[in-house]
TrEMBL record:
SUPFAM superfamilies attached to this UniProt entry: Ribosomal protein L22
Organism: Laetiporus sulphureus 93-53
This protein's GO CC annotations: mitochondrial large ribosomal subunit
Protein name according to UniProt: Mitochondrial 50S ribosomal protein L22
InterPro entries named among the record's database cross-references: Ribosomal_uL22, Ribosomal_uL22_bac/org-type, Ribosomal_uL22_sf
Pfam family, one: Ribosomal_L22
Keyword Transmembrane helix (UniProt): no
GO biological process: translation
Family: Belongs to the universal ribosomal protein uL22 family.
């Protein structure tokens, strides 16, 4: 009996300990942890986030400048007198009248390249590109590409009128170096074969083509011709000679 009473007392004490220990729910634990983390995050956001700086009013800036001036801490640039608006004229935008462009040095004789230069000189830019497009010369593709790039630069970068662009000048220059190789010949002799390179330069301008200038010159000469007409002028002879001109 005594042993049975001791066993019952032990069971009752264990049950009391189990009833007094409350096991928390997992969702409540997560909620507590989230609240604790949010409290720290809110403190970080409120205290460490960057604050927008308010612009000072002109009056505040003037007052601060006067206070610094009284202390003699102004820089040499700030101590200069202020220039009123309109006293200095704004810088005028440069107006371009021409655009110069050229190809890179490539392997071709300057005599052969000069034929293409003569073909496009004095023509409108679109006509020059069309001439190079249907030309059978090997360098025509390179010249056509160069003219297209020059036209694009002249219209977009320098503001020239695309419809009035002409190839005012076109010339060819030799390259800085000439590649030389040995050329074997009969009877143990040899020669020097040169591989020249050259480049083409063009100048694009707004103006009239050579054909338009030729037509204007022809019209000017035609205006100078004075016809006798149907009836003879009743005026004395101009520049009369000393004798009859048979």
């Amino acid at each position: 009996m005594q042993s049975l009473g001791i066993g019952l007392r032990r069971v009752t004490t264990s049950l009391r300990t189990v009833q007094s220990h409350h096991v928390a729910n997992s969702s409540r634990v997560l909620l507590w942890e989230a609240r604790r983390c949010m409290a720290g995050a809110n403190w970080i956001v409120s205290n460490l986030k960057p604050q927008l700086r308010k612009d000072n009013t002109p009056k505040e800036l003037a007052a601060a400048k006067k206070a610094v001036a009284k202390q003699g801490l102004l820089s040499p640039f700030e101590s200069l007198p202020e220039i009123a608006e309109g006293a200095v004229s704004p810088k005028k935008k440069k107006k371009y009248t021409e655009h110069k462009y050229s190809t890179a040095n490539f392997k071709i004789s300057h005599r052969k390249l000069n034929q293409l230069g003569r073909q496009i000189a004095g023509k409108p830019i679109d006509a020059a590109i069309l001439q190079m497009q249907f030309s059978e010369k090997r360098a025509s593709k390179r010249i056509k590409s160069m003219l297209a790039v020059a036209k694009d630069h002249a219209t977009k970068l320098k503001g020239l009128d695309e419809k009035k662009l002409i190839v005012a000048e076109a010339w060819v220059s030799k390259g800085p170096k000439v590649l030389k190789r040995l050329e074997t010949k009969a009877r143990g002799r040899f020669g020097i074969r040169e591989h020249p390179d050259s480049r083409m330069h063009v100048v694009l301008k707004e103006g009239k083509t050579r054909l338009q200038l030729a037509e204007e010159e022809r019209a000017r000469k035609l205006r100078r011709i004075v016809s006798a007409g149907v009836t003879r002028e009743d005026v004395p002879l101009r520049n009369p000679s000393s004798s009859w001109q048979w």
